[in-house]
Predict the 3D structure of the following.
Amino acid sequence: MALRTLFSKKAFTTASGFRPIAAGDRCFLRQARGLTVAALPDLAYDYGALEPAISGEIMRLHHQKHHQAYVTNYNNALEQLETAMAKGDASAVVRLQSAIKFNGGGHINHSIFWKNLKPVNEGGGEPPHSTLGWAIDTDFCSLEALVQKMNAEGAALQGSGWWLALDKGSKKLSVETTANQDPLVSKGANLVPLLGIDVWEHAYYLQYKNVRPDYLKNIWKVINWKYASEVFDEETA
Amino acid sequence: MQHQTLSCCGGVRASSPPPLSFRWSKIKREGGRRLPRCARIAAHLELKPPPYSLSSLEPHMSRETLDYHWGRHHRAHVASLNNLIAGTDLDGMGLDEIVVASYNKGNPLPPFVHAAQVWNHDFFWQSIKPGGGGRPSGRLMELIERDFGSFDRMLEEFERAALTHFGSGWAWLVYTANRLDVGNAVNPCPSEKDNKLVVLKSPNAVNPIVWDYSPLLAIDVWEHAYYLDYENRRADYVSIFLEKLVSWEVVSDRLDVAIERAAERAREDETRRLEDDAEITHSEAVEMYLDSDADDSEAE
């Protein structure tokens, strides 16, 4: 990894050679010339490891093309924002907001999404226990009811977008959908994402075509409830 | 079978504007008070096939894509729309009217997404053809050059709209008349130059007829439109669409319809304004007569 490549525009267009500074860091940021830029996080499993629920081809495209594009475009927008702010160009600052929200949101959402998934032989699909399990039973009556609700909202969503959330203020769980790549926080500053399901067509089309309900039914087999529990415990501690 | 052939051929019908009031929500709120089953008008909107075979757009748009895009997505919208409007006030209306009515001025009702997507997809299939592409000519080319500077500049803007749209939606080339959307306001010096070609984009199912534009060309940038053939490469899909698929003849025909419609509405506006003027003039004459009476009595 050559530090000098960070200084050129070209460095932002390829995933290869990018490694996060702190692999455990949720935001996968790195420092360059004072501007903190985003980097594509690695997956904790192979592209094919979630089959047959999600095909390796989809995982590869989703990660290497779609998520990478969000990272690249987010970084570009941040650079332009830095310049606009330095020049005091208010209209440029405002104009860049939608690109930042869309691409930044896409980066945030997908970084969480990869952690929401796990191969079956590593615990994917295993239902939540203890604290999160009880919270689900309290707020939704049962895991089945929660799954049904998320599937119904996910199937009904026109276009794109997402979520299972914890409201930090009330300590209650809720199911929220957001449009396009809006991150969950755009629906409420107190909302913490525990589990998200990408219902953009690129997340399932090559395998499930127009039958989004089948994708939603199958994805639960590879959902990583352990991660959701960890976040839940941390936020409710 | 309902007739919505004109709207599906891509022009907006040159007829009176759709009724603004309807009772969709009222019917639903009143405990779903629908007509009894025997009296219900069954909605009969049909899935129109594209005017070419499903394989004939290969290799630019595969048979498989058409099978899913037309055969599943578009078909599902037709079925859902028929289900949702059966027995309601929207049942029996033309598709254009259903779209505008269910858009509900920006607060869309449940049938909207299906109505608009049926309209949009009919329009989309008609906008392309095997052996498409090339360049337009005649009045369409003149207006493109007038409003964009050049054909290439228009293509650039159209591509940019299609590529920078965040999320699902559509990019459009539309003809817009400079009408003020306020009851008694009138364009004081209307001219043909006020009517312009414009490129715009819309999210999800939204369709420019709800803004009173006349669509001429559309490209579907929902991922299902291109994912099987181009995966994430939307840019490739958009350039192939413009180079190899667009039917400029259809776009041109739609422009003729749009221009005629704008001219007809301008004539209606003019007639209305003349009638209003005549009314004012007439009543002023009466006023003057009364005033002169009052003056005489004061003089005495």
About this structure: The two ends of chain A are 39 Å apart (CA to CA).
